[in-house]
Amino acid sequence: MDMGHPQWPFYVNYNAGSWKGRALHIDAESGEYTEPFVKDYESEAADEDDVMFETFTDLPSKAKNGVGGGSAVTKPPPPADEAKAVVRTEASDGFDADDKGSYAVDRWLAPVPGTEDLARLQIEFSVALGDNERVRCLISYGLDSHLDRIVLREEQRADGGGGGE
Questions:
Q1: Whose CB has fewer CB within 10 Å in the chain, the N or C terminal residue?
Q2: What is the distance of C-alpha 85 from the center of its chain?
Q3: What does the pLDDT look like over 118-152, one tens digit per residue?
């Protein structure tokens, strides 16, 4: 019987639950910000039979005209059916975590939250900065196998306490 990945419980304990964050999208070729530039979101992650499902929901955000300046404007939230992306993580050869909840994972044919893109390969790194804060970096290769996008995320726990069980 497969006993699962030994680091999976640490990953779930820290990362399950509700998070709020801001994502910065960077074009990998030019190094410039790319659509949707800066995106505020919340995510809900839950473990179901050793598979973590994380649902991202876009939030209305105060964004600047362009990225570098201009006056702040409030963008309306997108329709509910367009605002969600579900990312699946499972313990596999491309998964590793430490006992503090930091992790690295490779995903194949996965959605890029905040966009309509599908990545051929995603490489994600997450660093737990404390009980209620983490930073993540998502490196995304397009369906043409070229490095397409880098997404940097800063997140705070939204549910006010430790991770899920």
A1: N
A2: 10
A3: 999 999 999 999 999 999 999 999 999 999 999 99
Residue 22 lies in a domain: yes
Dig out the tokens for 151 from the structure. Answer: 């997404």
pLDDT band at residue 1 under the 50/70/90 scheme: very low
pLDDT class for 98, splitting at 50, 70, 90?
Answer: very high
**Both structure tokens of 107:** 């995903």
Looking up residue 140, the CATH number of its domain turns out to be 2.40.128.20
* Total structural domains within the chain: 1
Buried-exposed string 103-129: b where 16+ CB fall within 10 A, e elsewhere: bebbbeebbbbbbebebbbbbbebebe
Q: Is residue 164, in this structure, part of any structural domain at all?
A: no
Amino acid identity for residue 95 in this structure: F
Q: Is residue 37 part of a domain?
A: yes
Give me the DSSP letters along 81-148: TTSEEEEEEE-STTEEE-TTS-EEEEEEEEE-TTSS-EEEEEEEEEEEEETTEEEEEEEEE-TTSSEE
Domain contains 75: yes
